[in-house]
Design brief:
alpha/beta; four-stranded antiparallel β-sheet; 9 helices; four-stranded parallel β-sheet
Length: 377
């Protein structure tokens, strides 16, 4: 019986197993029949031809590494016989992709969202508890549960939730500054209609210093208190959240132009199927959104290593290209400064799922956006 498989690109010299294969079973690949030389699990790669040591393995139409030993058609291709081609920093050149796609277009399409007082747009209307220090994670969690249970909220409040983290206690310098920057960005997030910032009182990330990081708040969105300065932090917290709920209920969903929608793209637990299932679907959605003037944000820069040129070639301008080069090289310099291997990814779980090299992981990752032109602001 034939084992199902997929050859992703015409140039590929490996196919992806869609089911577990046993030694001696055969594959139908185009007009060819290939017999498996060994057991190969679903999501893993099978060689489609005989290859000598040093031959580049092609997947997604691009090299994902080189073979370290001679192999036969039907052989399993993975960590035992495939290594990365990546080593150190690379030199990039601006080679813009020729495309028929226009830049951002105005569209009459709308979505239901919330317009904030500063004109930011949200898709949710929630109350968030942001604690300044990890020492009160459980107190904030308990407060969120009590508020959800005891406060009568109108339909406009979707959820009351806390955001536990282990930081803020004895941090110093840039370490503390970065924590404050991250937490303040949560405070300013438009999906949070109301925010309670809850401190303990003895941490380095004090309420006062954190307030200066958040900046001036012109509406009723944000409230602050330190647990050590009140008699009962739960009672005080419930009173604050009650006021925040009242404020959040003043917002109503309205039709908002799709050009104001921003989506974030993240890792979904990569395996050998990520680049041929979920990621391409997200990529096509992102493509359509950007064509209508919206924004797709891709993070996890190290998971672009090995596929970054595909993104660079889609830069809107040479200036954006150079910004992208700086973004990638800055991350590589970070690894090098700390004596870490730049290309040590993928993780053990990724490998178990069929991913062998960082090039392969990155090529699957950028399917989320590789149909797009790249903008950077």
């Amino acid at each position: 019986m034939s084992v199902q498989n997929i050859k992703i690109h015409d140039k590929d010299n490996v196919a992806v197993m869609l089911g577990d294969g046993k030694s001696g079973q055969w594959l139908k690949v185009g007009n060819e029949t290939i017999v498996l030389k060994e057991d190969i699990a679903a999501g893993h790669k099978v060689a489609l031809q005989e290859m000598a040591t040093g031959t580049e393995i092609i997947k997604y139409g691009n090299a994902i590494g080189s073979i370290t030993e001679n192999i036969m058609a039907g052989s399993w291709v993975h960590s035992h016989n495939l290594k990365t081609n990546l080593d150190g920093k690379l030199t990039y050149s601006y080679n813009p992709l020729q495309t028929d796609r226009e830049n951002k277009q105005k569209s009459s399409v709308t979505f239901k969202g919330y317009r904030r007082g500063n004109q930011d747009v949200a898709i949710r209307n929630e109350i968030w508890i942001i604690n300044t220090v990890g020492c009160i994670n459980k107190s904030a969690e308990l407060l969120a549960k009590l508020a959800t249970k005891e406060l009568t909220t109108a339909d406009e409040v979707d959820e009351i939730r806390s955001f536990p983290h282990p930081f803020g206690c004895s941090q110093l310098g840039d370490d503390l500054k970065y924590t404050q920057q991250f937490l303040s960005s949560l405070v300013q997030h438009p999906n949070a209609a109301g925010v309670l910032v809850m401190g303990l009182g003895c941490e380095n990330n004090t309420i006062q210093s954190f307030q200066s990081m958040v900046g001036e708040v012109k509406d009723k969105k944000v409230m602050f208190f330190s647990a050590q300065e009140v008699d009962d932090e739960l009672e005080e917290g419930l009173q604050c959240i009650s006021e925040l709920v009242e404020y959040a209920n003043t917002f109503q969903k309205e039709d908002i132009p799709i050009s104001e929608l921003k989506i974030g793209l993240k890792c979904g637990g990569s395996d050998g199927f990520s680049g041929i299932t979920g990621n391409p679907l997200v990529g096509r959605f992102s493509d359509r959104l950007i064509e209508m003037g919206g924004t797709a944000i891709m993070t996890e820069v190290p998971e672009m290593f090995g596929a970054e040129t595909l993104l660079m070639n889609r830069a809107e301008s040479e200036d954006v290209f150079h910004k992208t080069v700086h973004l990638v090289n800055d991350f590589k310099d970070y690894f090098i400064r700390h004596n870490q291997v730049v290309y040590e990814n993928p993780s053990p779980g990724n490998k178990e799922g069929g991913i062998t090299t960082l090039e392969e992981k990155s090529l699957g990752c950028v399917q989320k956006v590789d149909l797009l032109r790249l903008w950077m602001y």
